[in-house]
Amino acid sequence: MSVYRKLFTVGPVEVRREVLEAMTRPMIVHRGKDYEYLQESIVEKIRKALEIDMDILIAPSSSTGLLEACVRCGVSKKMAGISNGAFGERWQLIGSLNNKTVQKIEVPWGKAARGDFVCGVLQEDVEAVTIVANESSTGVFNPLDDVIHAIRAKCDPLIFIDAVTAAFGIDLKLRSLDADAVVFGTQKALALPPGLAIICVSERLLEKAKSVENRGYYFDLLEMKKFADKNLPVTTPPISLMYALDFQLERILREGMKQRYERHR
To answer: Are 57 and 232 in contact (CB under 8 A)?
Structure first.
């Protein structure tokens, strides 16, 4: 017997019944034309909603998997991690556990990172800088434009954004940020069940990955890109969740992103 519960958590969040019903469509093979059409439709809708022309890669995992992919594929030796909460700390830890030198840029929990502070302490030889858009452990939103523009004025590392609790709920103005990776999942502002992670990647990051050794397989962005160019996954995805994602993106676009952002304020 199922018990209906109304969720008010950061994520997973409440999933509408019609979205759940979209997951009951007949199963298809992930190496066939029907699947190719499905993935192509999803990618086009994400680009339209976020107003970007970056490559969109989809992985059957939590968002943390793609945070690790950024480190494994975008950093050879040294990175910087901005932290003002638990999820900023997690990205620093991912770097350390993958044998990268990590400059830890610490901001007091409950405070937002500021461009002048980050720029003042950032070491110019880092290959990438990680930042959490909305640090849900403390409820603080970091001013991405201020921080990223300050970094770019000092040096030119790759910029990786954890947008897990921000994408599709806050207008991040990604086109003007010129970030190299933006990671989010299905179970937060997209209001879907957990199980898929999405990364928007720049050409700079993909080019950098070619020179990085030991990228692994499951989260190798170059391998994912090779398959994505054919609208295919590297490994078997949760196809029922892909149906729901396509359905939900259609609903979101019908509402309009401006209206959606206003509703989430």
So the answer is: no
The candidate with the shortest Cα–Cα distance to 177, out of 123, 133, 114, is 133
Residue appearing with tokens 């090779």: 226
Q: How many CB atoms lie within 10 A of CB 44?
A: 12
Q: Where exactly are the structural domains of the chain?
A: 30-263
Kindly give the pairing relationship between strand 197-201 and strand 158-162: unpaired
The first and second tokens of residue 211, run together, are 């020179």
Could you tell me if 216 and 71 are in contact, meaning their C-beta atoms sit under 8 angstroms apart?
Answer: no
* pLDDT tens profile 81-122: 999 999 999 999 999 999 999 999 999 999 999 999 999 999
Largest CA distance in the chain: 59
Phi-psi region of 83 (alpha: psi -120 to 50; beta: other; left: phi over 0): beta
Task: Give CATH for domain 30-263.
Answer: 3.40.640.10
With a threshold of 0.85, does the pTM exceed it?
yes
